[in-house]
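A reminder from the course coordinator: this example appears on the midterm review sheet, so study it carefully.

Given structure:
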């Protein structure tokens, strides 16, 4: 029996694929889920993503509701939102693949 997906399910699938299909997005989520709140510069150092790309990726993740930030002096501190908890199992699976290489 073939499953017929609603337009909403198709859009949600495309949005999820856009996030997990991009290594920079996955690295950012990995760092924030596993190690907690980080500044822009900490994320830049930990992920080795250049500043322009990191800024764009954080903006995308904020728009998707997966990442938020708080102002702390002159820097922003980024953290995952409740919505990003859905990605925790995926991040764990990726981590297992890396470690058990």
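Designed residues:
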């Amino acid at each position: 029996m073939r499953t017929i997906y609603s337009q909403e399910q198709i859009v949600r699938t495309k949005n999820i694929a856009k996030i997990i299909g991009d290594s920079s997005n996955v690295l950012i989520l990995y760092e924030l889920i596993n190690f907690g709140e980080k500044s822009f510069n900490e994320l830049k150092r930990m992920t080795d993503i250049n500043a322009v790309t990191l800024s764009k990726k954080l903006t995308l993740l904020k728009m998707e509701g997966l990442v938020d930030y708080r102002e702390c002096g002159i820097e922003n501190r980024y953290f995952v939102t409740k919505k990003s908890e859905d990605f925790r199992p995926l991040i764990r699976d990726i981590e297992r693949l890396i470690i058990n290489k």
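The chain has one domain: 7-99. The longest helix spans residues 7-20.
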